[in-house]
Specification:
Length: about 1000
């Protein structure tokens, strides 16, 4: 497959926001100098020799023919830019692209170690990830970090619908990784980076000190070392007709715990708006937490007196533990990637090609070694013998009362954090294989074909465990046998391995690793999920100009492509007995397949004429039939380009993109399950209920009030008027109302994506390219999960059928039926279904300028900015539209700011020995929805905050220095976030998505400055 100097042929003159031409001239992937052709050159001249090649990769089209500009904006990241950023994982590169909502799968605790991509903040499932124009894998099983950064030639980011060209999932856009599959020689790449952060005393260390929590308030931390090593080799044989190359890549990242940063010394909590700040605390203290479950002290919480005198003191925050001090700010991870590319050109009519990518990634999260509360297992407390020799008489009296000193047992809750004992880990093992292959070539005159396919299989194993309840319980039943403390279960032979657990002394478990090993040995379970993709693709394209089919005013003829595609998506999930015992659930084997056919056209109408340097129309149409839906659906695109002169090009496109439910969503929608609503839920049409207890008799009496919903709303739920407010509607106290989840036919969601823009290449400013594009993505019938409360609350607020039809009442109006009987009435519905609308609107700005300095070298500037004007939607036909742009919190979670940009400037010496690149990253301000002034976002005057309601604009600066010693060797040093800017601080940060580090961790450089060194050696 041939790439022309790494340029995006479909948008060659488009400014590539993250490309660095000066660095691009340093070395190409084989170690030689890159030709002077750059992204601001005229495409027709730059790729004239490539037009007959069938292997050109064009993002956004199946027609491999170079054009002057693309009809939709595409941002490209070059391999040189990736190296300048010292990226170990591709996620770090993608997170800096303005169009991508940041994510950080390796940098937070609550993740599974896989990296997925989210364009325009519209969700992972609406971004299609490709490698050389073919799918990376299933939507549920993608891990973009399987792609080795050293072999990425460029990354193309096409935002906006592309379903007509690539199929379902390309609603928000496409991210296409173009690999260097034509490598020759031997190359070794190495990169090592670490964090160098200056911890300073601040707000969090001040609050943490009140609890006695350790905090690195004043120290210079150098940690989190990460290594990325790769070896690539390739050769050509048989007069260059046969090519083969392979690579192996190793990455390793060290753990950085929350306790290593002042900004996460404890988790800030603000229980009252604008109130005092506290730390999140844990009852799992090394002093030992105990709570009797019977007798006079039932429910009281105690801690072993820290002075060790054998008494209890009441549990308070002063004796609590820090629940998050061992959590992962950066997960410990180790990854191997390997693979290869091969092709054999039999003739112009037939070339066989194949490539394979394999990876194995292990990452883990540490948790403190603890004896868990019985509530982690169920409702049965632990039992301690009241003559346990490890208890003092005072402790026995508190727990057992009058039974103290006897062989009787008393129920007890015990929570204990071990000290100086290795942490317990939950482990994520991700393994995957992706194989592509096919046959391509040209035939007749002006025709070419590509028939191939993708097989991708990703396996994820999650392993974790709990201390065994029975073993902890056995270890609390201790007797004295001839002066030796022994478990009663050892004496009676029921558990000969039992070890006594001294839960009645402070820090008694220090260094007692053997006891904890007894608790957890053999008690780790594993859950496995396997996602498999089978994808066959056939494309035939032709230049009809060879048959005279072209506009009389155009130089090029009409180009056409026909395609047929089959995809099958399988998911298999299973777990071992231990996992099921601890976590429940059931095995699943899901699948769905789709047949698709598509056609695409490029029609140049006018070329190189007065007032029409270029006038062109592009179009595509795709028809899809999914096995999970009885209907056939279609997608299409229409694009137009008009360049009145060579200096300016107007472009516009409209796409109808549709996304079918993933195999998981389709199953969730169709699979029916019943459950009880265990929360304090009451039918909105039943009378409100409060309970009054007589202080003398203890008798509990129900007092009924008016229903929360009006008669009109209740009529919309199907309730007869004579039953309105009837006490018979009250859900039984111990049973609760019934919810049925599933039973929905989940239809494809539909997005209409429109882009309009202009590309400027003024001849009077050589080397300058600038583009402005307006994007409008309107998503209808969004697929998502909404539980019963969404529909119940919506019905209560609006009385609209959209919500109220989810009440399926019995003939007597009630909402409770026995779940085990698979009832057809008597429940509220919930689950995965289509609900309403999502929107993403804004402007993209891209620019590139190259300034020659003669013998002094050259300067290159690259700019990419995104202005988001609308990011939100509407949850039902009658609810208000909401716009989360520039806001966070509430239903907006972590959103993108209104304005983000990146500006990179690069200086390169004339001999290309040295280059220096400075990058400026800007993130606009964000405001809490509490202060938005918009009731649609949940704003109320009473909720308006005076503190922690705004995050100011953030600016980061990066520096990369590169030295090209000779054609065989170059090395790099870089610093990202040079000024070591600390992230913004927010209390209750866990309310804002996957974030428990007192900030919006995926967006900001939470760990501080990154220092990196790297080298490339070519043979």
């Amino acid at each position: 497959m041939k790439h022309v100097n790494g340029l995006l042929l479909a948008s060659t003159c488009l400014a590539t926001a993250f490309a660095t031409p000066a660095l691009a001239q340093e070395l190409n992937d084989t170690g030689g100098p890159v030709p002077e052709t750059t992204a601001y050159a005229d495409a027709g001249e730059a790729v004239a020799d490539a037009t007959a090649d069938t292997g050109i990769v064009v993002t956004g089209s199946r027609i491999n023919r170079p054009n002057v500009t693309a009809a939709a904006p595409i941002t490209s990241v070059t391999s040189e830019s990736i190296r300048a950023q010292a990226a170990v994982n591709i996620e770090e590169v993608l997170n800096r692209i303005p169009q991508i909502a940041p994510d950080s799968q390796q940098n937070y605790q609550d993740s599974d170690g896989r990296q997925r991509i989210k364009l325009r903040n519209l969700g992972f499932e609406r971004t299609l990830t490709l490698v050389d124009g073919k799918r990376l894998g299933t939507m549920n099983g993608i891990d973009a970090n399987m792609i080795p950064t050293a072999l990425i030639q460029r990354v193309d980011v096409l935002t906006g619908g592309a379903s007509a060209v690539y199929g379902s999932d390309a609603v928000a856009g496409v991210v296409n990784f173009i690999m260097n599959d034509d490598f020759e020689g031997i190359q070794i790449n190495g990169n090592y980076n670490l964090y160098a952060h200056n911890n300073k005393a601040g707000l969090i260390s001040d609050v943490a000190s009140q609890y006695g929590f350790d905090s690195p308030a004043r120290n210079f931390a150098t940690d989190g070392g990460r290594v990325d090593l790769s070896l690539t080799a390739g050769t050509k044989l048989f007069d260059d007709r046969f090519h083969i190359s392979g690579y192996v890549n190793y990455r390793k990242a060290a753990l950085v715990p929350y306790s290593a940063r002042e900004t996460s010394g404890c988790q800030l909590v603000e229980t009252v708006k604008d109130g005092p700040l506290t730390c999140s605390t844990s009852t799992y203290t090394p002093y030992g937490y105990l709570s009797p479950r019977s007798g006079a002290n039932n429910g009281n919480a105690y801690v072993n007196n820290p002075n060790g005198n054998g008494t209890f003191v009441p549990f308070t925050d002063a004796l609590a533990a820090n629940p998050y001090d061992g959590y992962s700010f950066q997960r410990e991870a180790e990854r191997w990637n390997a693979g290869g590319f091969t092709s054999f050109k039999i003739s112009d009519a037939a070339e066989v090609y194949a490539n394979a990518m394999w990876f194995r990634d292990r990452s883990s999260n540490p948790y403190p070694a603890r004896a868990l509360s019985y509530t982690a297992y169920g409702d049965s407390p632990y039992q301690v013998n009241c003559n346990n020799p490890l208890m003092s008489p005072a402790q026995a009296q508190t727990i057992c009362g009058n039974l103290a000193g006897t062989a009787a047992t008393a129920p007890l809750d015990v929570r204990y954090r071990f000290a100086n004992v290795p942490d317990i880990e939950d482990v994520y093992l991700n393994k995957g294989l992706r194989i592509t292959g096919g046959l391509r070539g040209s035939f007749a005159e002006g025709w070419s074909y590509d028939v191939g396919g993708v097989y991708a299989r990703n396996r994820q194993e999650t392993t974790w465990g709990l201390p065994d309840f029975d073993r902890v319980n056995n270890s609390l039943n201790v007797v004295n046998v001839n002066g030796t403390l022994t478990c009663a279960s050892v004496v009676n032979g029921t558990d000969p391995n039992c070890r006594p657990f001294d839960a009645f002394s402070p820090r008694s478990t220090r260094n007692d690793a053997a006891l904890y090993e007894y608790f957890v040995d053999g008690n780790f379970g594993t859950s496995t999920t396997i996602n498999t993709l089978y994808n066959g693709i056939a494309t035939v394209q032709g230049d009809l100009g060879t048959y005279g089919i072209k506009s009389p005013w155009a130089e090029q003829g009409v180009a056409i492509a026909f395609g047929a595609e089959y995809r099958e998506d399988r998911l298999k999930s299973f777990a071992d007995e231990i996992w099921r015992e601890q976590n429940g659930g059931s095995d699943a084997a899901l699948s769905q397949h789709v047949w698709e056919g598509n056609v695409e056209l490029q029609v140049p109408i006018v070329e190189r004429k007065k007032f029409a340097h270029l006038l062109q129309f592009n179009g595509a149409y795709r028809l899809s039939k999914y096995s999970s839906n009885p209907d056939t659906f279609s997608t299409w695109k229409a694009e137009a380009l008009w360049a009145p002169v060579a200096d300016i090009t107007f472009r516009g496109s409209i796409n109808r993109a549709q996304r079918a439910p993933t195999v998981v969503e389709a199953f969730q929608g169709s699979n029916i399950s019943y459950d009880r609503i265990t929360t304090a839920y009451n039918d909105i049409c039943a009378p409100t209920v409060t309970y009054v207890t007589d202080p003398k008799t203890g008798v509990r009496t129900a007092v009924y009030g008016s229903p929360t919903a009006s008669r009109e709303v209740c009529a919309a739920t199907g309730l007869a008027d004579n039953l309105y407010g009837s006490t018979s509607l009250v859900c039984p106290d111990e049973v609760g109302c019934t919810v049925r989840r599933g039973g929905f036919a989940v239809d494809p969601e539909t997005a209409y994506t429109k882009t309009f823009g202009v590309v400027l290449r003024p001849r009077f400013v050589p080397g300058l390219t600038f583009s402005v594009d307006r994007f409008l993505i309107d998503l209808n019938d969004s697929i998502g999960y909404n539980d019963y409360d969404y529909f119940s609350n919506g019905c209560l607020a609006t009385g609209d059928e959209f919500f109220c039809r989810m009440f399926v009442r019995n003939a007597d109006g009630t909402l409770y039926s026995a779940p085990g009987g698979n009832p057809s009435t008597g429940f509220i519905r919930g689950g995965t279904t289509n609900y309403y609308k999502s929107k993403s609107h804004g402007w993209d700005f891209q620019g590139q300028y190259a300034l020659a300095l003669g013998s002094a070298g050259r300067l290159d500037f690259d700019f990419a900015g995104s202005l988001t004007t609308y990011a939100g939607g509407q949850d039902s036909p009658i609810l208000a539209k909401y716009n989360c742009t520039g806001y966070y919190g509430g239903g907006c979670s972590q959103l993108i700011p209104k304005w983000t940009h990146s500006l990179r400037g690069t200086y390169t010496t004339a001999d290309r020995f040295f280059s220096a690149s400075v990058n400026w990253r800007h993130l606009g301000p964000l405001t809490n929805v509490s202060n938005s002034g918009d009731p649609a976002l949940g704003y109320t005057p009473a909720g308006e905050r005076e503190t922690f309601y705004r995050i100011g604009a953030y600016d980061y600066f990066d520096l990369a220095l590169s030295f090209r010693v000779n054609e065989a060797f170059s090395f790099r040093v870089s610093a990202n976030n040079i000024l070591d800017k600390t992230p913004p601080i927010l209390p209750n940060s866990y309310n804002y998505g996957l974030s428990r580090s007192n900030t919006l961790s995926a967006r900001y450089d939470s760990l501080g400055r990154i220092l990196a060194v790297g080298a490339t050696l070519n043979f």
